[in-house]
Amino acid sequence: MSKPNHWKWSSCLRYYGESVYPPSLLDAHYLLNMFSPDRSNAEERFKEFNERSNQDICLEDHGDSTLRLSDDEAREEIRKCLGRLEIPQVKCLPNMERDKVLKRVKRIDGVSQMQAARILGVAVYFLCRVKG
Fold first, then answer.
1. Cis peptide before 22, with omega less than 30 degrees from 0?
2. Which of helix, strand or coil describes residue 81?
């Protein structure tokens, strides 16, 4: 399904002028006004913009090198990265030490920040703010 208006949970149809249920679920006016004050012209311009070919790489377009690991695989890679530390210990470390560990964990291929945070029992914020 390469077109957004074919996606099951997309709001795209509403922006294309089609009805959605419930009708009050989405107010397309704000976004469409960015394209034109004329509703018909705005829908046409939005559709053109939305379906324009680009070089964006979506999750399903990634090659094998960027596949996400399962939680079990990610947990094992995190354990290797931690060395002698146990997973539950990470959240109790002093901030600077914890950040050093999180930097290493962020470099593990195939583990998302959200997944690492869930496995480590820390807020995803800690992983997002750590540079590295």
1. yes
2. helix
- List pLDDT tens digits, range 26-80: 888 888 999 999 999 999 999 888 888 777 666 554 454 558 899 999 999 999 9
Tracing tokens 């914890």 back to the chain, one arrives at 98
Three-point CA angle 84, 119, 112, nearest 5°: 110
Asked if 81 contacts 108 with a C-beta cutoff of 8 angstroms, the reply is: yes
User: pTM (2 decimals)?
Assistant: 0.51
- CB atoms inside a 10 Å sphere around CB 119: 19
CA distance 26 to 24: 5
Alpha-carbon Rg of the chain, whole angstroms? Answer: 21
Nearest-angstrom CA–CA distance, 125 and 99 = 11
